[in-house]
Amino acid sequence: MSVRTATASGAAAVMLGACVLLPATQAQASGAQDSPVVYAHRGASAYAPENTLAAVDAADDLGIAWVENDVQLTKDGVLVVVHDTTLNRTTDAEEVFPDRAPWAVKDFTAAEIAKLDAGSWFGAGFAGARVPTLSQYLHRLERNRQKLLLEIKSPEIYPGIEKETLRVLRKEGWLDRAHVKHKLIIQSFGAESVKTVHVQRPDVVTGFLGTPAVADLPSYAAFTDQINPSYTTIGADYVAAVQKLKGAHGKPLQVNTWTVNDAAKAAEVAGFGVDGIITNNPDVVRDATH
Q1: Would you say the pTM of this structure is higher than 0.90?
Q2: Residue 182 falls in the annotated catalytic set
Q3: Is residue 41 flagged as an active site residue?
Q4: pLDDT in tens, 114-126
Q5: What is the 3-state secondary structure (H, E, C) of the chain?
Q6: pLDDT tier for residue 225 given thresholds of 50, 70 and 90
């Protein structure tokens, strides 16, 4: 059985369980047009090692259009897709480079990172999976006809990462009208990073990761289109307060919340009126809210 087949089979079992056990939600009753968009967090990371091409494919196998990822810069300036600012949790960096503690992404070249196994920690069936470059990741999304919610990770560590991210996106065809309008969102926990993207490419949809105070929301609306908070920090009133404002492109600010992995919580936050849910279990969230 192939990795993709095995992944899809395991995910299908979870979906079936969710369908059998869960009652219809308000979101289901109100129709798909009111349902939040589902974003596969670091790919379908409940079923494949996060931020790998296998996780992209796992999301595709589940029929999930939107994939979220994290980008950072290597020592030689190559954008790679990895979440932690260190490599030791999700790769075998400690074994391959035992004398390079603390194994920070910024201290390794792209060629060195390409040698690492980014799959075995998750499961033997994923042994040999690699940390993809952003270019490789974009190619896989394009092949699968998927869309990208791209997070610029820890921008304070990587001066100029916004410009380089936009350069790679442009080089790979992701800054044409079709992609910018329908297939790409760039977000970050760094407000200045989001501002920088907005200044350099005002047409790109952007999101700020966090939960600004309601009184501060107008200042964020000047440079972003989305406020993307942790689900633990929001309720219906906060979501409504965000959506009352117009963002950088003159449309109501949207709310994509993270990281919701179970059906009951997904139904609850959908009831708050969020526009999207970021999740490791995109099938479970989809089935609970659509």
Answers
A1: no
A2: no
A3: yes
A4: 999 999 999 999 9
A5: CCHHHHHHHHHHHHHHHHHHHCCCCHHHHHCHHHCCEEEEECCCCCCCCCCCHHHHHHHHHCCCCEEEEEEEECCCCCEEECCCCECCCCCCHHHHCCCCCCCEHHHCCHHHHHCCCCCCCCCHHHCCCCCCEHHHHHHHHHHHCCEEEEEECCHHHCCCHHHHHHHHHHHCCCCCHHHHHHCEEEEECCHHHHHHHHHHCCCCEEEEECCCCHHHHHHHHCCCCEEECEHHHCCHHHHHHHHCCECCCCCECEEEEECCCCHHHHHHHHHCCCCEEEECCHHHHHHHHC
A6: very high
